[in-house]
Amino acid sequence: MAQQSLAGTRVAILAADGVEQVELVQPRTAVEDAGATTTLLSLRSGKIQAMNNDVEAGDTFEVDRVVGDCAPEDFDALLLPGGTTNPDKLRQDPAAASFVRGFVESGRPVGVICHGPWTLVEADVVRGRTLTSYPSVRTDIRNAGGHVVDEEVVTDRGLVSSRDPDDLPAFCETIVREFAAAGR
């Protein structure tokens, strides 16, 4: 596959404490290597604590901006990594849910992996869309009107989803391609 360019593309990464480290780091690296600028958004300023397999503390990551101070128009694409507690915290925050809803409704591309779709469910943006996720999230997606498939990576109208860290190579390749296509 030819290298896709994301030069000039502004990618928001929305995460909170409990984010699965590999699901934050690998997609971030993939889009940055393609030329994008990333901004880590969270619920508060400071640092967020990443996890490895939801049980072992990973690294901490400096938050660039608070999501409540941002608008979807500030960015060209959005990444929603998983981890079980990360999207659970995000979906309980009205500013995060509003940001995600506005982003999806704007038609800008979104990449979401593992438990990340919980935030999409809370934002009420999965109705009529096909996506995949970690198995424990699938009933929530169906109950919110989404169609779930069990595939490595799924793309539906700019929404790119994958199941878990094993899917990261395909997920990263697809988000770079979809984010580049949206920028044309």
TrEMBL record:
PROSITE patterns in the record: PEPTIDASE_C56_PFPI
Signal peptide positions (record): none
Keyword Secreted attributed: no
Keywords: Glutamine amidotransferase
Keyword Ribosomal protein: no
Pfam families per UniProt: DJ-1_PfpI (PF01965)
Domain DJ-1/PfpI: 10-177
Family as reported in the entry's similarity comment: Belongs to the peptidase C56 family.
Protein name per the record: Type 1 glutamine amidotransferase domain-containing protein
